[in-house]
Amino acid sequence: MLKGKHILLGITGSIAAYKAAVLVRLLSKVGAEVKVLMTPMAKQFITPLTMATLSKHSILVDFYNPENGDWNNHVSLGEWADYYLIAPATANTLAKMAVGAADNLLLTSYLSARCSVIVAPAMDVAMFKHPATQANLEMLRNNGVSIIQPGSGELASGLEGEGRMEEPENIVGFIEKMEELSSKKKTLAGIKVLITAGPTYEAIDPVRFICNYSSGKMGYALAEEAALRGAEVTLISGPTHLPSPKNSHIKLVPVTSAAEMLQASERAFDNADIAICCAAVADFTPVEAVGEKIKRENSEFQLLLKPTSDIAAALGKKKKTGQYLIGFALETEDEIANAKKKIHKKNLDFIVLNSLNDKGAGFGGDTNKITLLYNDGQQMNFELKLKSEVAGDIINAIECLMINKK
Ligand code: C5P
Questions:
Q1: pLDDT value at position 406?
Q2: 258 touches ligand 1 (CB under 6 Å)
Q3: Whose alpha carbon is nearest atom 13 of ligand 1?
Q4: Known catalytic residues?
Q5: For strand 379-381 and strand 192-197, is the pairing parallel, antiparallel, or unpaired?
Q6: What is the pLDDT of residue 195?
Q7: Which DSSP string do the residues of 108-160 spell out, in sequence order?
Q8: Nearest CA among 282, 206, 274, 290 for reference residue 239
Q9: In sequence order, what DSSP letters do the residues of 82-103 get, joined into one string?
Q10: By CB atoms within 10 Å of each CB, which of 11, 51, 238, 269 scores lowest?
Q11: Closest Cα to residue 318, out of 305, 306, 330, 309?
């Protein structure tokens, strides 16, 4: 993955600097070329001789070489690099990066870098948790810097907690993953995708609601995959515990109830090329949401429910030529037959069936096992996979349909 890639490694003054030697070894092993920049303080923790020997390049610390006046050009360094990794990154360097200070070569190179910048923070737990450090990290994140979260454990201070720089193997894995994602072909460039995800909450009274076990993970993975392939994604999500997607090509539209999800979906569908109804929409909602909290009485209580509108079916009715509509079916019995009925009822191009009888499939977990059922009777079975991989299979299937219809 990283063969032939240029990696600029910035080392700052932290005890974790010793791990930078292993980092250079691992990066060289996978075929990357590494040039090392150090802050003056970093030289106290690991010698330039060690780093120069391992990276096979002289180490850059100052703006110029006082012996012969040679200028270390931070602009050309920034242009040379495919990735600028700062590991370890101290609280001080992170703070300076956040405000754009440029009082050493490592920082000026950051300001002139046009490549992806990654930081692996290393510091004491209290420094890491300090609101100032967290605000700086947030600012860097908003400026597009990727942050490799430090791990928890024993720290050089003797304290225990968050602040340990991530292990070199995992840092290399992180960059490899970035490379894999950025080299993904933009097969959905210019395509608008609508995805519904998560559960819906149907209010019973001001404090209670009807819900289900949907985590939203499958829908969010689909949004991520479509955006990585260049699509503009509208992710209409019921309440979940998932972090908001970071990809700027994903527009998150948070909704609560099935009625709200229907309204947002119908609005977005007019402009969509593809709609994937992945949400576990509540099938029933209370006939009326009581305005005050229902009191407990010592007698039976009956809640009257009415069916919600079927969002997928509503979109199916509006579907025009050139639009693709995909649904999901989570079944517990007669899976195939039940799922097939829904393809026609909802006017879907295909339905993604996951069975609660399959171990590792369905709600909550990180894996899923799916079968695709098409409106022409075709069927495709897949192995148990990570939801991110399942998302890739589903989007591949949609791309195949689009290519065949061209
Ligand atoms: O009919 P059933 O709920 O099993 O169908 C599941 C499919 O229909 C999923 O794609 C789900 O997102 C969608 N659906 C919907 N609106 C509903 C119920 C289900 O869009 N009210």
A1: 57
A2: yes
A3: 312
A4: 212
A5: unpaired
A6: 98
A7: HHHHH--SEEEEEE---HHHHHSHHHHHHHHHHHHTT-EE---EEEE-TTS-E
A8: 282
A9: SEEEEEEE-HHHHHHHHHT--S
A10: 269
A11: 309
